[in-house]
Design brief:
65% of the residues lie in helices and 0% in strands. By secondary structure, the chain is mainly alpha-helical. The radius of gyration is 20 Å and the shape is flat. The N and C termini lie close together (10 Å).
Length: 248
Amino acid sequence: MTGRIFAVALLAGLAAGLVVSVVQHFTTTPIILHAEEFENKPTASLGGHARVDLDARGLAGARLYLAHGTESHGPGAKAEAWGPEDGLERTLFTALTNVLTAIGFALVLTAAIFMRGRPVDGRRGVAWGIAGFAAVSLAPALGLPPEVPGAMAAELTGRQGWWVLCAALTAGGLGLMFLGVQRWMPWAGVGLLVLPHVLGAPQAEAMGGPVPPELAAHFVAASLVTAAAFWAFLGWATGTLAKRFQLT
């Protein structure tokens, strides 16, 4: 059974990762490249330093921001972190990141479906995918919306910690609301959904940055739509393969 679970997750994650890479090529990637043009311009607000930010909220947040800094490389200058070259190399590394992330999410989704123990198909799998989108992308975006390169943000570790907390509590809350058998469970689920937002996400000390707000808003919308498409496809693929491999 363990082998079948891994087989379903591997195939579903591979397919979803490749599909979302194609979708991103036409949605979020052009916005990121445009934002990097503003980020890499030497301005007084940047102080001559570029910020390299790997944001763990991507697919929507599993998204990899790869930007080259504008720092000096003379004697005593700090060496620039390695990053894939623009073009084919960057595209391949982004696709690899998407596939690995999708396989990880597929493992969690497949395990949840198996533990539920109810028959599932592609249609029911989409419902599981929507729940995954709500927990991983939509709910965290209420406190920490997807950010374009160059946007001002709070410290990365704090944002990642809040994202993990929000995703876990949202998943638990949805589970209690829709799968709970006791009367108190839906109410407890609502409490879990609200809790991370009551605690509040870490925010930047100041708003702004070199990227126009219209471009940042466009990126938020494109990221969430792309994430919704990813999770719907991942859920459908996982449910379809789970039925074929007879996991439940």
